[in-house]
Design brief:
The chain is of the alpha+beta class. The protein is built from 19 helices and 21 strands. Strands 2-1-3-4-6-5 form a 6-stranded mixed beta sheet.
Length: 535
């Protein structure tokens, strides 16, 4: 006799469905729940419940589930029923949840059986359940959840749900898309939805991938897609205020277009993604646009310290001989940071820039002649080049011929810098040189800073895998826009915050250790940032 026939025999033709048997198996260890079950679902003297329970204990729970799955798949006409109740599915999803430290999710399902099976595997990770099921056993399932201290929620409770795991037994592409969207609409912005679903439903025309617009000013961003078993995938989606379109770049990655700029996510770095998008608390700026770098950037010669002058020279493009050379006042010289000077995690430059400024303000021609006469003559020798610049603010009437669009922030003592034109985000810290602040020029973007410990914190945070991956994703087209950085939540350094201080210490270590030790410190940074994003 097969296990199917045995199970059919113990049903006595009075337990109408295997769903009833699965529910009974789930509550069989609780006498009070069994009594409630008998009162609600068993007609008097028509079934020997004790005998059924005794027979049930001879079978493994997975066997019961297998038979239930076989039964429902045969009865479902035209509905796709993937092996969503397979033990392998739960183990792989659980492994993913554990690896990400993802806890306190709300389980949403359309089946009391799926709910019971999931709870057995995800008990410590699940904070509550929403069951959208018309099953006659919903009430006893609620009693079961109450006994194991897993609250049963209504849809209205979704407004405070940060993470939801959605598992639907029946896979109908239109129905699933509608249910997921209806759940997502009730969740707050930035909430995460983990979905176990059929790959066919995900990719099919009219399926989930084509229904990301919630039509209320919000959208569903696909953060990652991971194959679980054949035809079943685990999708992580975030509710965002941005329109996105997904595209495939391999089995383990899904990229999304956000404001027409592709962003690529590693599915292993999903945790805390909802806390990344928002508004940076740091100002992000472009480097100084001179309009003609070769007229301002110089190499130092020998200084004449007693007069406060330094011999400097610029070179022709072909580097054969000087184009301009002479003495300038040392107070007008600042270390310069060009794109070619940027290295991770710390940058140095041998070049300097001559700036006609004092007290962080551009000097007029008369002021420059009186205050720094040698510097004035240096620029005057390049007057024809400087007056031919074609950037709009250089031709403003009344402005000196060497005019620059100077902002006070560019004189901050420390900066995190990176190349604008790049397919990879490489953050770098630049420090003062000879007591003078570094000046980023065109092609460099930067965050100005006044505190060295804050600078250590930021170089660690932006060097972490998750931030570098996301920002590098924006650079897919070969350029990083300021808006890409501004749309990331980069929290202001808080010296009282334990994780902020840990990142600051690790950032400082990055600057002084060799390459092998840097890899070790990066692992610590990635771990700290993950904790930082979960909190």
């Amino acid at each position: 006799m097969t296990i199917v026939e045995e199970l059919q025999n113990i049903l006595y033709d009075r337990i109408k469905t295997l769903e009833m048997l699965v529910v009974l198996y789930l509550i069989s260890d609780d006498d009070a729940l069994v009594r409630t079950f008998k009162e609600k679902y068993v007609e008097a003297k028509m079934i020997d419940l004790n005998k059924v329970l005794e027979s049930l204990r001879e079978y493994d729970f997975e066997d019961i589930i297998r038979i239930y799955f076989w039964n429902i798949a045969n009865r479902s006409k035209g509905a796709l029923i993937p092996e969503i109740l397979s033990k392998d599915v739960w183990i792989k999803v659980l492994h993913f949840l554990k690896s990400q430290g993802l806890k306190n999710f709300l389980l949403a399902t359309d089946s009391v059986v799926t709910c019971g099976v999931a709870i057995r595997f995800f008990k410590e990770y699940c904070s509550g359940v929403i069951i959208e099921s018309e099953s006659p056993y919903s009430e006893i399932c609620k009693e079961y959840l109450k006994k194991i201290k897993k609250p049963f929620y209504e849809r209205g409770d979704l407004k405070n749900a940060n993470t939801i795991l959605i598992i639907f037994l029946k896979q109908n592409r239109k129905e699933i898309s509608q249910k997921i969207k209806s759940i997502a609409k009730l969740t707050p912005l930035g909430s995460i939805l983990g979905i176990v679903t059929s790959e066919k439903v995900f990719k099919s025309k009219g399926g989930l991938i084509y229904n990301l617009n919630l039509y209320d000013g919000t959208f569903l961003s696909i953060i990652s897609v991971r194959k679980i078993i054949k035809d079943l995938i685990f999708i992580v989606i975030m509710k965002t205020p941005y329109f996105v379109e997904p595209f495939y770049i391999g089995n383990n990655y899904v990229a999304i277009f956000r404001s027409n700029v592709p962003t690529v996510f590693d599915p292993k770095e999903v945790v805390g993604i909802s806390r990344i998008f928002g508004l940076s608390e740091y100002e992000v700026r472009d480097g100084l646009v001179t309009g003609r770098d070769r007229a301002f950037i110089v190499t130092l010669g020998e200084p004449i310290s007693e007069r406060g002058l330094i011999f400097v020279y610029t070179t022709k493009i072909d580097n054969k001989g000087f184009r301009n050379a002479g003495f300038v006042e040392k107070d007008t010289l600042y270390p310069v940071i060009r794109p070619t000077d940027i290295y991770w995690p710390l940058s140095f430059s041998e070049k300097f820039i001559v700036l006609p400024v004092k007290d962080k303000k551009l000097l007029s021609e008369e002021e420059l002649k009186n205050t720094f006469p040698n510097t004035y003559e240096f620029f005057n020798r390049e007057r024809h080049i400087l007056t031919s610049r074609k950037v709009s603010y250089f031709t403003v009437s009344g402005s000196p011929f060497y005019t620059l669009d100077i902002h006070e922030e560019i004189f901050s003592p420390y900066k995190i810098v990176w190349k604008r034109a790049s397919k990879e985000f490489i953050p770098s810290l630049v420090l003062q040189k000879f007591g003078k602040p570094p000046i980023p020029v065109s092609g460099v973007q930067y965050i100005p800073l006044d505190n060295i410990y804050e600078a250590y914190y930021l170089i660690a945070l932006l060097s972490s895998k998750i931030y570098r991956d996301i920002i590098s994703g924006y650079a897919f087209s070969g350029s990083i826009t300021i808006n890409a950085i501004r749309s990331l939540k980069i929290p202001r350094f808080n010296p009282k915050d334990r994780t902020h201080n840990k990142l600051s210490v690790l950032g400082k270590k990055l600057l002084v250790v060799d390459y092998k030790d840097k890899e070790k410190i990066l692992k610590e940074i990635n771990s700290a940032v993950k904790d930082f994003l979960i909190l």
